[in-house]
Amino acid sequence: MNLILHLLLDAAVIFGLAYIMPQVDVKNFGTALLIAVLLGLLNFFVGWIIRFPLNLITFFLLTGIVRILVTALLLKLIDRILDSFTIHGFWPALVIALAVAVAGMLIDRSAPSEQMVESGYVVSILQSLRLG
After folding, report:
1. pLDDT, tens only, 24-48
2. Total domain count, the chain
3. What is the 3-state secondary structure (H, E, C) of the chain?
4. In the structure, what pLDDT confidence band is assigned to residue 123 with cuts at 50, 70 and 90?
5. Which residues constitute the signal peptide according to the record (predicted)?
6. 29-42 and 63-81 are packed helices; what angle lies between their axes, rounded to 10 degrees?
């Protein structure tokens, strides 16, 4: 469920920023969803290969910044792969990567913790919402 939410939010962020930024062009929301899926797959399979040496160089002190830079590089790679997605320049890719990172952080922060679920707190809130 969390994966689907992340993919949909990433696609919405990419599509929304493409609407706002003239340097970014996305054909439709389906293309944005495909970009989000490709970004997730590339981050999983290739991203760690790029991130690990960069994190070693920075002594793992700048992992967040390295993750955003690698995501921007992967967005530029997706730009080369897909004809229906274009980014003119590295800075727009960096802005999209930063927005995707912030959106993902907000989702992860708002999700209930395991302790909340185990204690029944989340269930009691859902039951009170149904009754009220």
Report:
1. 999 999 999 999 999 999 999 999 9
2. 1
3. CHHHHHHHHHHHHHHHHHHHCCCEEECCHHHHHHHHHHHHHHHHHHHHHHHHHHHHHCCCCCHHHHHHHHHHHHHHHHHHHCCCEEECCHHHHHHHHHHHHHHHHHHHHHCCCHHHHHHCHHHHHHHHHHHC
4. low
5. none
6. 130
CB contact at 8 A, 89 and 21: no
Token code pair at residue 37: 């899926």
Q: What is the pTM of this model?
A: 0.82
Which whole number is the average pLDDT over 86-111?
A: 92
Residue pair 70/51 in contact by the 8 Å Cβ criterion: yes
